[in-house]
Amino acid sequence: MPTQANRRMPLSCEPCRERKIRCPRTSSSPGGPCATCVRRGVPADQCVFLREVYGRRAARPQIPAAAAAATGAEESREASNSELLERIRKLESLVGSNANIGARRSTAEVPTALSPFDDSGDGQASTPMPSRASRGTLVKSVSGHERYEPLSSKWSSVLASSQMADGMSCEVDALATESEFPFTTGRFQLDDVLSALPAMSHCDQLKDVFLSVFAPLFHVLHDPTFLADYARFRSQPETMPLSWLALLFAVLSIAVTALDEGSDLLRDLGKSSDASKSISTLTSRYRAAAFRCLEGDQYLWRHNLQTLQALILLIYGINHSHGQSWALLGLTRNVALSLGCHVDPDHFGLDLVEAEQRRRCWAALTMLYMIQNTCLGSIDTAPIQSSVRLPLDVDDDQLAAGPAAARTPVMRSDTPSQMSYLLYKFRLYDICARICNHLFSESGPPSYDAISAFDREISAQQDAWNIKYLRDTRHSSLPNHHAVHLNILFGYSHQLFLLLHRPVLQQAHTEGGSTQKYAPSQVLSSRTRCLESASALLEIHRLLYENDAFRPFQWYNHGLGSFHAFHAAVFIAYICGTSTDLDAEYLASLRREVEASVSTFEAIAATGMSRICEKAAPVLRRLSATSCLFAQRRVDPPHEVPQTLLPLSPPLSGGSEGQPYSPSMLHTSSQQQLEAFLETLQPRQWLSPAAITWNDWDLIVDGCPTSQGCG
User: Fold this and answer.
1) Domain-by-domain residue ranges, the chain?
2) Is the pLDDT of residue 199 over 60?
3) Number of CB atoms found within 10 A of residue 511's CB
């Protein structure tokens, strides 16, 4: 067996060897740790060079060979025992310090699944905040990248209680090499990315469009910080971090969607007479440039807050123009976890501005995740536990610099702030997620008590909006962007009312008007609520289109606004075609509302800027012209109900049992078949425009007569 003296000892110290980082291989002072361990805050007694340990043992005075042979085995055992005891003492010390930290933790310090919506809305915490040591640390590199190291991490558990952890700079870049990003086709060239930028004057205009139109709707950025960075970009664009350039391209990709078909800026940038094609081309170009910047920055393993902001804005833009982005959203959520955004920033002693930006990112990401998870049928039933507070309901200029934990609480104003809309929309999406989880389960129709509770919760939100936005309108008019925010909030709340009460009306019609689950008065109440909400949605859709002050927000009306209005018009047609107790005058007024909405849909479709309107306008034209839907109905005896009223199952019905759907059946008895088709449209199929299968609606246009064949 070779002796210890003959072993080849490693040159680096043990902490550097374990983390596989560069070690200067010499002590910074006699008997002290190496320079890397000093910078990382590793205790001196843990920075050990094995070559020195065994070198000291090898330097013992020589003894005769016979004596060495007699005592060699005993000394070897003593050396091994001594080394083992030393390691045990170190381990006991570490375990003891961690145990003390755990013992000091209070119950309030454990991350809980409490919803941030339980807060009063001002972002103030209702429970004591845990110490930073109980949550982990933020590790920052000289390149500006960050990483969150939880308490369970080997070295953060040692350093968490040390003052040396403050502002600690660690080797976040240690894994970065000179090799190319693994998923790119070639080496990153900064000049190629900068050449994709529009002219600086055009860039200025798009930046202003974003800050005036989109930033108030989805207020993730801190405007003064972004503007300060933008000023540096204008003077020296080649010196800006790649993560910030990615953020800028994400901003540009969203801003172009707010340009209307008559915009001179759009013509200059797109160089095409087709506005819709120009917007699509520019959006794709800027998004691709944003991802090239992220790839050049190696964002899969190196990221910072700007990386996260860029990804969140990219997802927001994709959701409004192309539909779902579930895979990218999952990646972005993991980046947020890697940055420690699921931990309230007060635990890290950050500046108030950075702390609020982190809260905004986590709130926006949570909201996007709720939206897509709900639309996909709640496939992720295990939300991440987090105690992050909601962002403060304040304007950006109210955020003073300084440590967040030591700040004076900012008082909220009674007027809407830059954050008010996002916070209110956040709560609405939470209500929507709970409605879908509770009411659209496979356990059967929900109780009316549950429906009423959600109804009251939505109504309470509407009351809060009126108080917040309309308090001072007697003295001054509401700013245009706040007026748009209020209309969008009310529009989404009316959409929730339609989703919420649809199961009641659906079951009542399926059972021929009588149901054991709901009383007749409850069915009537739900129908009244839905008709009021449907009419309000059509009015909001028309108002946003006709008011010139709202022109910058047409991108919303072209997408989600038109989708909600289409839902409302179809719902009115469904109610008129299935209700037997509506008088002729009321039916005529409802028909006029649908006909007026058709004019709005056709006008928007003519611009070529809305695929939803292009598809929905012919359907609504056919429904409004189908006179039997809006004619006063008589009650048929049960034995006279035609067999064709059995539910049909077009492809969008999710494979439910029923007769196959075909145009020939529509010609057989158009009224009954049209009612059966509308009946198969489950509430969950109105959660997102991506759920619409337009081929099924084309059958309405191609196969349903307008004034004949009504049975």
Assistant:
1) 4-104, 187-404, 493-703
2) yes
3) 12
